[in-house]
Amino acid sequence: MTAPTPHVLLIAARTALDRPGGLGGSAWARSTALLTRQALEAALAAYWSARAPGMESCSAKCQLLALPFYVDDPTIRAAHQTWAALSNACHHHAYDLSPTAPELRDWLDSTQAVIDTLTQATVVPRLTRPVSLPSQQARRQSPALQLARRNSS
Amino acid sequence: MDDALLDVVLGRIDDDTTLSEGATELLLAACQSDHALAQAVGGEPPPRPEPRTAEQAAAEPVGAFLASITAEGFRGVGPAQTLRLHPGRGLTVVVGRNGSGKSSFAEALEVLLTGSIARLDGQSSVFREGWRNLHHPHPARVAAELHVEGAPGTTRVERTWADAADLASGTATAQVTGEKATGLDRLGWTDQLTTYRPFLAHTELEAMLDSPSGLYDRLASVLGLDDLTGAANRLRDHRLALEKQARSAEAERNDLAGALADVDDERAAQAHAVLTARVPDLAELARIVTGTGSPQAGGALDVLRRLVALVPPDLAAVDRATGFLRDAANGLDAVAGSEAARAKALADLLGQAVRFHDRHPADTDCPVCGRSDALDKAWHDHATAEIDRLRTEADTAERAHTAARAAVQAATTLIRPLPDAVAQGEAAGIDTSALAEAWAAWADDPPPARPEAPDDLRRLADHLATATALVDAAGAVARAATAELAAREDRWSPVAKDVAAWIDQGRAAAHTKPAIAELKKAEAWLKTAHDDIRNERLRPIATRAQETWRALRHESNVDLGAIRLSGDRTRRRVDLDATVDGTNGNALGVMSQGEVNALALSVFLPRATLTESPFRFVVIDDPVQAMDPAKVDGLAHVLHDTAHTHQVVVFTHDDRLPSAIRRLGLDARIVQVQRRPGSVVEIASVDDPVDQALRDARAVAATTSAPDAVRSRVVPGLCRLALETALTEITQRRQLQAGRPHHEVDAALDGAHRLTEKAALALFGDSSAGGDVLRRLNQIHRRHGDTFQALKAGAHGEPVGSAHRTVDATRDLVEALRTALR
Q1: pLDDT-based confidence at B813, cuts 50/70/90?
Q2: Among B700, B709, B725, whose Cβ lies nearest the Cβ of A65?
Q3: A148 Cα to chain B: minimum distance (Å)
Q4: A136 vs B705: CB contact, 8 Å cut-off?
Q5: ipTM for the complex?
Q6: Would you place residue B588 in the very low, low, confident or very high pLDDT band (cuts 50, 70, 90)?
C-alpha cells in the first residue's frame, strides 16, 4: 500500500474537523490533530527523501531541527511550534483539555502552508544559505502576533 | 506640566479658533501652576510656554534592566541568596515549588523599590508581620543590581531593616555610578513606579478588575493625564474661589443695602441707590463715601453745611457804620442852611472882583451896581475875608455831604439779603423761622436813606443797630446745624466705613464675573481635550491589550473590543467593550476567573511596557494559576512576545509554563529555585537559549540514522546559533552595564550580521574590530580560535564523526567567553 500523500491526509483532517459525523466527545478533535500531524510528517518525509535520502527515517523533531537549514521560509520557522502543539494534542494528558475548533483550524492552516512550501522546495530544490538563524528571524514575526491576528480574523 | 502633554495641549489650542484669548491665557496658566493661574486671573498672564523641538519630543527616558535580586532574612530566604538575571531583553522563568522562596525574590524587588508589598496591603497583621525569615531573622536585607542607560557601571539598590523594624521602616540606599546615597530619590522613579508599575503579583492580577474605578486609576495613571487633571482642578478651584468671592460680595452688598436703608442720611440714601443698582457704580460709591462728591443742592446736608457756614452781619462793622451815619447826620445838621454851591459861586465872584480891582485900582466904582467909590480898601479887605469865609463854608458843606453819602453807602453794603440756606432750613430739620424773620426785617425793608437828610441817616443807623437780634438768631441756627451735622455724621460714618470696605470687594467681584465666564470656557475646553487625549493615548494600549487577549483567550467565547475610559472623579470607570459569542455583554460578568486574570494581564503588560517607562523589565509572580492549559500556551507566546522588547521575569510554581515554552520551542531562560531545610535557598540555571540550541545540536548529532551531509550542515549551524546567542547576550549585558542606551545596543546588534562582527561586538564593543577577534580568542585558549573558525566555516568545516566534539567545543567556547567577559 502506498502511503497517503500529505494533501490527502490534510483533506481528511479538514473533513474530521468540519463534519465530525459519528465521532463523539473529544475524539473528533484528537483525530483532526492526529491527521494534521501525519500530514505534516508525511510532507517532511517527502521533502527529505528527495533532498537528503535517509533523513526521512529520523525522528520528526530531528527533521524539524534540520529543516530551517535547508528551507529558508517563515512558514518553516512556525512548523516546529505547530508540530509541538499537534503532538501535545494527540497525546491524552490527564489534565489537558482537548483542543478547540479554532485552534485546530489554526494548526491546519499553518500545516497547509508548510506543506505548500515543502512541495515547492522539492520541485525546485533551493540552494539556501546554510545558516539562517531561525529563532532570531522568528522574532521579527512573532508567533503571538500571528496568533492574535488569526484569532481576530 | 509634562512636556509631551503640553505639546498636545498647545497643538489643540492652535487648531481651535473658537477658544477666546482670555480662556487660552487661563488654560495655559493652569497648565503651569497655581501661581501662574492666579496671575492670569489677575490680568497678568505669565509668558506662554513654547512647544518642544522635534528633537526633545523624540527623546526616550533612560531605561533600566535588572541584573540581580538578592534577599537575606526575608520571607522564604534565610542566608543571603542572589538571583542572577540576564540584564537585557528576553524571557526568564523562575520555577520553584510553593514555599521554595521564588516569590520572595519577586517581593524582595517590590519592597526594595516601592517600600511595600501590594499583596500584603489590607491583610491582617499576622500576614504583615511574617515577612522576616524564621530561620534567619537578622539581618534582613534585600538588594538589586540594575543596569541603567546613561549610568555607567552597576546601579546598586539596597534596603536593610534594623532588628525590630517593621516592613515599612527599612532604610534604603542607592548607589549610582559609584556614589552611594540614602533614599531612592536619586533614581527618580518614585512616580514611575506607580505609573508604570513593573510588578504584578497573582493577587494583584485578581484584584485588578475588582472595581471599575481601581482599574481606571491603573490605566489613567499610565496615560500621564494627571497634569491635565491637575490643570482642570486648578481651573475649577480658582473658579469656585471666585464664585465664592462673588457670592460673599453679593451677600455683603445685600446686607449693606439693608443697613443703608436704615440710616437716615442723604448719603446713605445715595449709597443705597448706587448699591441696589444692577451694576453698582463703584466710582460714584467711592465719591459718596469719601465725601469728595458734591452733595445734592438743597439737600439736608447741603443746607446744613451752609447753615454752619452762615455769615451773620459783623456787629463791629455795624457799630462802625452806625457811628458813621450818626456823625454824618450831625455834620449835615452843622451845614444845614448853607448852600455850598452859592457860597462857592459868591466866593468866585468876589475873587474875580478883587482880582479886577487889584489890576485896575483906579476903577473904584462898582461895575455891578455903579455906586461910586464903592471899591476901596475897606471893600477890598472885607471882600477878601468874605471870600475865605465863603470858601470854608462851601468846603464844610461839601465834606458833610460826602461823609453822609459814604456813611449811607457803607451801611447799605452791610445789609445782605437773606441767605438761601436760612429759607431752606426746614429741609434740614432746623427751625430757622426766627432768623429768617429777623433777617428779612433787617435786610428786606431798610428805611429810605437820602444822604442829604440827616434824619434818614439817623433812622438808618437805628435800623442797622437791630442786627444784634439777628446775629443772636444766626448763632443759634448755626449751632443747631452743627449739632445736626454731627449727629448725621455719627450715624453715617460707621456705615460709610463698611461701604468703603466693601468697595474693594465689589471691585474684585466686578472683575470676577468675566473671569468666571472665561474660566468656565477654559474648563469646558479642557474637559473635552482631556477626554480626547485620554482615549487617544489609551488607543495603543487598548489595541495591544486586545491582541494580548486574543492570544490568551483561545477557546474563550468572549471577545474584547474597545477599551474606553469615561467619566471623572467618583464616576470614573473603564468601559470594556466585550462581546460574548458575538453578542454585546458585560464582559466581566460572564468571564471565568482564569479569563479575568488573562484580561488583567492583557491590560497590565501594555501598560508596564510603554516606551515612556524607565523600566525595561516586568516582574510577574504566578500568572499561571487559574489558567487552563491552552491559555498557558497563549501566555508563553505573549510573554515571549513581550520579551522581544523587554526583560520579562516570571515566577511560577508549576512546570506548565516552562514545559509550554520548551514544547513551543520558544527561547527563554529557565531558573530553578529550591529551598533546603533552614531556609537555605539554592538557585540553578536549568535552561537558556544557548542551552536550547546546544541541546538541539546534540540531538541532531546523536541521530546516527540521519545522513552525514545533513548532520554536518545542521550541527555546526545549531552550534553557531548557540554561539551567536551567547555573543548577543554578552554584548547586551556589557553594553547596558556601561550605561549605553538600549536602542543603540539593539541597533549595533542588528547591524552586526557576520559572526566575526558579532564576536567583535561582544569582545570589544565594536563590530568593526573583527580583525582582533581570533587573537583575543586564542589568548583565552588556542582551541577556542579553532572552534570559532570551524563554526564560521559552517557546513564546509568538520567531518561528521566529530559532530559531538563540535557541540562540546562550542559549549567550552561559550563558557570561556562567559567567564572571560563577565
Answers
A1: very high
A2: B700
A3: 5
A4: no
A5: 0.77
A6: low
* Beta-carbon separation of B551 and A58 below 8 A: no
* Residue predicted with more confidence, B740 or B209: B740
Separate counts of helices (H) and strands (E) for chain B: 31, 15
* Res. A140: pLDDT tops 60: no
- Inter-chain touch A145–B718, beta carbons under 8 Å: no
Q: Three-state DSSP class for B574?
A: strand
- pTM confidence score: 0.65
A144, B629: Cβ pair inside 8 Å? no
Contacts of residue A88 in chain B, CB cutoff 8 Å? 663
Q: Is the pLDDT of residue A96 over 60?
A: no
Structure-model confidence comparison of residues B748 and B372, the more confident one: B748
Which of B645, B700, B727, B800 to mutate against chain A (most A CBs within 10 Å)? B700
Four-CA torsion B483, B489, B494, B495, nearest 10 degrees: 130
- pLDDT bucket at A131, cuts 50 / 70 / 90: very low
Alpha-carbon gap: A62 to the closest alpha carbon of chain B (Å): 6
CB contact under 8 A, B664 and A147: no
pLDDT of residue B118: 78
Q: Residue B550 above 50 pLDDT?
A: yes
| Yes or no, beta carbons of A152 and B709 under 8 Å apart | no
Q: Extract the runs of DSSP E, i.e. beta strands, from B58-128.
A: 64-72, 81-84, 90-95
Residue B437 reports pLDDT greater than 90: no
Q: Do the beta carbons of residue A30 and residue A90 sit within 8 Å?
A: yes
Q: Give the C-alpha separation, B581 to B546, whole Å.
A: 16
Please report, for chain B, the start and end positions of each structural domain, with discontinuous segments joined by +.
3-58, 64-198+613-686, 315-475, 689-820
Amino acid at B752: A
Average pLDDT of the segment spanning B374-385: 86
Looking at chain B, the whole-number percentage of residues with pLDDT higher than 90 is 13
From B552's Cα to the closest Cα of chain A, the distance in A is 8
* Closest chain B residue to the Cα of A82, Cα to Cα: B664
Task: Determine the average pLDDT of the residues in B508-512.
Answer: 81
Q: How far is CA A96 from CA B554, B556, B631, in A?
A: 14, 16, 11
Per-residue cell: B73: 532574612
Residue from the list B707, B714, B724 with its beta carbon closest to the beta carbon of A53: B707
Q: In B647-799, which ranges are E strands? A: 647-652, 669-676, 680-687
Quote the CATH superfamily of domain B64-198+613-686: P-loop containing nucleotide triphosphate hydrolases (3.40.50.300)
- Determine the distance in angstroms separating the CA of B582 from the nearest CA of chain A, rounded to an integer: 12
Pairing of strands B90-95, B647-652: parallel
Residue in A with minimal Cα distance to B722: A133
Closest chain A residue to the Cα of B645, Cα to Cα? A139
